[in-house]
């Protein structure tokens, strides 16, 4: 998508302290922690049938396979970097409509789910306890695939704020769902998010937070149906980052959705998220330490 290229260019031009890493390709064994083996095989070999391709939303190609694997690899890399430095960003990602058995809604593999499983598996391999992970999904569409994947897993908490009448029209059950009406504006959204975060932290103590920072709740998003301003989205991001930083939680950020009528506004919103994260987590660092941001790039 064009917005990823534009976002990368803006990050390079306006955030000189960024360390921009190439997105690695997720390995088959990493994908297999979440996705069924036959589905992975069909994606990799081009054996998806016409119905599966329609459900995903675009045709199979070698480029689609590489993009999808790198998107997952970038979120895994962002999680690793966040655990070392407080936060990190995948300049794409947020493919939350993908289920273990199939893709949907422009999502082939579920990057947040695979990354969460990677962190947990790697911890167990080191002889450590399985880290509890929270996935906070603030894309305007419910993270139905993520919710289904972790529905019976108490080690991962799924929180979704989304439009009640938006895609997917048949919702899954997250650990905490907050459905918002069409036209929901800044104040109502922030009140709902504040309550949801409080509830999540009362019920769950994560070691890592994966944040899907969709730009699509914006008032001018073509697919959003909500009515947040750019300033309201800044309040949203700041609320998440403040809650995480105050609990010393590493945060891996993905950009998720954003389909604005003006693509530059969508890119502004995504860039704003990264800038606010740098402010929130930079305040935790020793003032003598370099102010750097690790970002996994993917186009």
Automatic annotation (TrEMBL):
Highest taxon above the source species: Bacteria
Keyword presence, Hydrolase: yes
Matches recorded under Gene3D superfamilies: Histone deacetylase domain
SUPFAM superfamilies, per the entry: Arginase/deacetylase
Keywords: Hydrolase
Any one of the GO BP annotations: epigenetic regulation of gene expression
Annotated Histone deacetylase domain residues: 15-261
Keyword Electron transport among UniProt keywords: no
Name of one Pfam family that matches: Hist_deacetyl
Residue intervals passing through the bilayer: none
InterPro entries: HDAC_classIV, HDACs, His_deacetylse_dom, His_deacetylse_dom_sf, Ureohydrolase_dom_sf
Molecular function terms, GO-annotated: histone deacetylase activity; hydrolase activity
Similarity comment: Belongs to the histone deacetylase family.
Protein name listed in UniProt: Deacetylase including histone deacetylase and acetoin utilization protein
Organism lineage string: Bacteria, Pseudomonadati, Pseudomonadota, Betaproteobacteria, Burkholderiales
């Amino acid at each position: 998508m064009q917005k990823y290229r534009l976002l990368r260019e803006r990050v390079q031009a306006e955030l000189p302290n960024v360390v921009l890493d190439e997105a690695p390709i997720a390995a088959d064994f990493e994908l297999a922690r979440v996705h069924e083996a036959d589905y992975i095989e069909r994606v990799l070999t081009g054996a998806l049938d016409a119905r599966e391709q329609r459900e995903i939303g675009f045709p199979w190609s070698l480029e689609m396979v590489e993009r999808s694997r790198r998107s997952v690899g970038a979120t895994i890399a962002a999680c690793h970097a966040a655990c070392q430095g407080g936060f990190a960003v995948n300049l794409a990602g947020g493919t939350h409509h993908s289920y273990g058995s199939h893709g949907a809604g422009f999502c082939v593999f579920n990057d947040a789910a695979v990354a969460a499983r990677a962190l947990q598996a790697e911890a167990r391999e080191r002889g450590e306890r399985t880290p509890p992970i929270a996935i906070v999904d603030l894309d305007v569409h419910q993270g139905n695939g993520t919710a289904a994947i972790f529905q019976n897993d108490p080690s991962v908490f799924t929180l979704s704020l989304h439009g009640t009448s938006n895609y997917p029209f048949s919702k899954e059950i997250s650990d905490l769902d907050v459905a918002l009406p069409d036209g929901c504006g800044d104040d109502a959204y922030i009140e709902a998010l504040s309550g949801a975060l409080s509830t999540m932290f009362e019920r769950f103590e994560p070691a890592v937070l994966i944040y899907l920072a969709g730009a699509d709740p914006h008032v001018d998003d073509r697919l959003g149906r909500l009515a947040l301003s750019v300033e309201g989205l800044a309040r949203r991001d700041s609320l998440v980052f403040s809650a995480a930083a105050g609990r010393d939680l590493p945060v891996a950020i993905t950009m998720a959705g954003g389909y604005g009528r003006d693509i530059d506004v969508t890119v502004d919103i995504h860039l704003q998220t990264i800038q606010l994260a740098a402010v929130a987590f930079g305040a935790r660092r020793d003032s003598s330490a370099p102010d750097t941001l690790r970002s996994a790039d993917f186009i």
